[in-house]
Amino acid sequence: MIKTRHLTILGSTGSIGESTLDVVARHPDQYRVVALTADRNVEKMFEQCMRFHPSYAVMLNARSAEQLEDKLRVTGLATIVLSGIESLEKVASLPEIDTVMAAIVGAAGIRPTLSAAQSGKHILLANKETLVMAGKVFMDAVRQHHATLLPIDSEHNAIFQSLPRHFNGDLSGSGVRRILLTASGGPFRTADLAILETVTPEQACAHPNWVMGRKISVDSATMMNKGLEVIEAHWLFNADPEKIQVVIHPQSVIHSMVEYIDGSVLAQLGNPDMRTPIAHALSYPERMESGVQSLDMFKVARLDFEEPDFRRFPCLGLAYEALAAGGNMPAVLNAANEVAVEIFLAGRIPFTAIPVMIEHVMKSTEKQDTPDLESVLRADRQARESAHEWLSSNFRQNAGQSVESPSCSIGQ
Ligand code: NAD
Ligand code: MG
């Protein structure tokens, strides 16, 4: 019998947030939703408050918080509405909660996720950008404050499930030879390279297997997502980069694998539905129903594997470079990528300019150590400034008016 868990869901209105609430709603006596947070989606937050009656609802945006408060007042619901980053940190560390789903997208997730670690919570980590930016700072906080970290990213959850139950961060000592990190290859795996110049945000977001938020969908199309996941795996499992092999597996049925020194390869399989890793982490070490359908092996019929193509996906190579460089470089990579994805989604640069811009920002940044949160946030800020400078000197500012697409020299 699972004891009742008291939850804060950071980013509850997003794709992972909604899947989390879907799982939680299937087990009403095992979970109490104490706090929900979002950026500015008032309508969805209002619906979630009406359904889950949280004690707190936080909108990052102050105006959105006022609107939510107005709407809730008429209903008589006792939910306290807060706003701002400090309130996100506060609800991630409330004494009355034990578990935090960290599902804010991007660098914005770092402070509340770190706050959950510093207060020793069970952290269900979807916000991979926190680990990419501040792997050491975050992992140190987890250890120091005896927090528990459970991976939500499907690949990392699969690796976690395929590792020994009491894995202590020593891969060799556990008999592990390497990690096989699977990747679908996204919507442009086989596309003619010439068309990448003109693909639209809608095409880039049309993932063949997963339904996700727009930022991670573009990251999947560039395979930056897999690059971020290599860095994430490095920190979560204490894995050297050469022990992490990316494997393209277009069906997204095997969510990742662990190879042992005796030749055994353990994999976790399932339908591509984030409710599986969410339910696994919520109920760990037990198991519970997630609403996910059985995997129909006869329908799947075949599983394919390919080596990643670093020329087609330069972002993957950039992420390996950032990991090898260490220090501020992963945070710089992440920040430049966030800016590039945002302006690609706004129609201001072509898809092919994303790696060019990231490479430029990385090359023009001096390598530095990032021993604390302040230095990580500084690296993030400086990389964003550098990305915007590159943008203004290479592209006109009006939406859809890109003038040229410089080529990327990275590739192997
Ligand atoms: P999403 O865009 O659907 O949702 C993001 C959530 O974060 C929303 O609730 C939004 O209101 C909130 N948010 C956005 N900007 C914010 C800000 N500045 N401050 C506070 N809150 C903010 O994103 P998603 O697809 O659910 O992804 C969330 C995280 O989970 C990402 O880090 C992503 O990489 C990771 N992840 C997602 C999936 C997936 O299937 N969607 C799979 C693996 C990992
Ligand atoms: Mg993933």
How does this model look, in words?
With 412 residues, the chain is α/β, with parallel strands linked by helices. It has a domain at 5-151: 3-Layer(aba) Sandwich (Rossmann fold). The chain contains 16 helices and 11 strands. It has helices spanning 15-25, 42-52, 62-75, 85-91, 110-118, 128-144, 154-162, 201-205, 214-222, 224-237, 275-283, 297-300, 314-325, 329-345, 353-363, 373-394; strands at 5-10, 31-38, 56-59, 80-83, 99-102, 122-125, 148-151, 176-183, 244-248, 254-260, 265-269. The protein has a 7-stranded parallel beta sheet, sandwiched between helices. A 4-stranded mixed beta sheet has the order 9-8-10-11, covered by helices on one side. α6 links the parallel β6 and β7 (148-151). α6 (128-144) packs parallel to α10 and α10 runs parallel beside α13 (314-325). The relative contact order is 0.11.
Jot down its keywords:
single chain, disordered C terminus, 11 strands, four-stranded mixed beta sheet, binds nicotinamide-adenine-dinucleotide, Rossmann fold, 16 helices, binds magnesium ion, seven-stranded parallel beta sheet
Q: What is the compact description of this entry?
A:
The chain is α/β, with parallel strands linked by helices and 412 residues long. It contains 16 helices and eleven strands.
Strand order of the largest sheet: 4-3-2-1-5-6-7
Q: Helix proportion of residues, in percent? A: 40-55%
Structural class: alpha/beta
Radius of gyration: 21 Å
Small molecules held by this entry: nicotinamide-adenine-dinucleotide, magnesium ion
Can you count the helices? 16
Count the strands?
11
